[in-house]
Amino acid sequence: MKIDFNIAPDRRGSGSMKWDKKPGALPLWVADMDFKTAPCIIDALRRRVDHGVFGYTYVRPAYYEALQWWFATYHGLTIDRESVIYIPGVVPALSAIIKGLVKPGDGVIIQPPVYNCFFSSIRNNGCKIVENPLRRVELSNTEFTYEMDFEQLEALAADPCNTLMLLCNPHNPAGRAWNAEELRRVSDICRRNGVMVVSDEIHCDLTMPGYEYVPFGTIDPKAISCVSPSKAFNIAGLQIANIICPDEEMRAKVDRAININEVCDVNPLGVEALIAAFSSDGHDWLEQLRAYLYDNYRFMREYIAANLPGVPMTKLEATYLPWLDISRYNIPSEELEEKILEHTGVWVNCGTMYGREGFIRINIACPRATLQEGLQRICEYLKCLG
Ligand SMILES: Cc1ncc(COP(=O)(O)O)c(C=O)c1O
Question: Separation of 226 CA from ligand 1 center, angstroms?
Fold first, then answer.
């Protein structure tokens, strides 16, 4: 079925965090999309809703089969049924993993700028944030990317107090889809130094043309991965995610932490949505979505290069979240976020949320007309700042 992503429902008044938290704003902030999810998911949910009974959920074999089929078919990752723990979200997963596997006071290595909840999950579990910052690489006057600092990672991993690394693969907000060589180096360094790796792979199905997602589990079969259809299929509100933890001993500890945190149950709609998403119909829809997101990304790249040449932007290999360098304005990014909202009505995310000053993050997962409107307003305002 051909999908027209130029058309999206009006989300105002639908209880949408993105649209209803600041009524009247044009929201290009939080990472959810304005598109309807795949028709196969809506059909599956409709059937489940028509059943009319919503008691406690038993996660049936079809769920595991869909997950295994998707990752084997599209990503070359074999998932053992026993290694899967379902959970309502990747953030509860990260929190439980840290609680189960890291002693309070020990260090967890992260690579900022990185997803804000990495910081809070570590902090909330009484552990220490250990930064292995990504290194910026200039590609042109208008474009940059990031690479890992392996030398520093080696030094941090050698400290026996640092026992776990949270990897973001693909990386939000750096936009990188880490390649096999980079992941092999992470794995080698961590294995040699006894550091456990937990890979957050929530953005795995959102790669751009020419880039491939390499599951960390294909590099290091003992590593823990967190996956969910929530970002790619726009079903974050249905709260369904998975921890893939092949090691039995570690799995028991993580399972215990999930129970202590009381996040062990999922809802019946999330289960049905995952089964429908991870299907060939789901894949057909996803291919169309990715093509649309790529066109949005190209549109934005050209628009920013033409209108704000002094604001370089990341090369996007994955995700729908470009990251813009606004350091030339010499305004703290939190303040700039507020000013942009006040003067243009557009809501973006400030860089400090992700641990770095001098950047903003923009969500391009919306109809092109909405993106164009948002960019136009932001550019007009930033031009006035000089
Ligand atoms: C890297 C990363 N992990 C996790 C999440 C959120 O996960 P969940 O909604 O499943 O808790 C996000 C949301 O943007 C994200 O970017």
Answer: 10
Alpha helices, H only, 87-209: 90-101, 116-124, 150-158, 180-192
**Of 73, 59, 72, residue with least CA distance to 267:** 59
Q: Which atom of ligand 1 lies closest to the CA of 171? A: 1
Q: How many CA atoms lie within 13 A of 285 on its CB side?
A: 20
pLDDT tens figures, 355-367:
999 999 999 999 9
Distance 172 CA to ligand 1 centre (A): 9
Is residue 200's pLDDT more than 90? yes
- 3-class SS of residue 162: strand
Are 300 and 362 contacting, i.e. CB atoms less than 8 angstroms apart? yes
d(CA 199, CA 207): 16
Instruction: Report CA-CA distances (Å) from 85 to 97, 185, 267.
Output: 11, 27, 14
User: What local confidence, expressed as pLDDT, does residue 386 receive?
Assistant: 81
* CB-based contact 109:153 (threshold 8 Å): yes
Quick check: pTM over 0.85?
A: yes
Which amino acid is present at 20? D
pLDDT one-digit tens code per residue, 84-97: 999 999 999 999 99
- Which pairs from 64-68 meet CB under 8 Å and 24+ separation? 66/274, 66/275, 66/277, 66/278, 66/279, 67/227, 67/242, 67/274, 67/278
Strands 84-87 and 241-244: antiparallel
The three-state secondary structure class of 37 is coil
Helices (H), the chain: 17-20, 39-51, 61-75, 90-101, 116-124, 150-158, 180-192, 216-219, 248-260, 268-277, 280-307, 333-344, 368-385
Closest ligand 1 atom to the C-alpha of 114? Answer: 1
pLDDT in the model for residue 140: 96
**In the block, which residue shows the tokens 């991870």?**
278
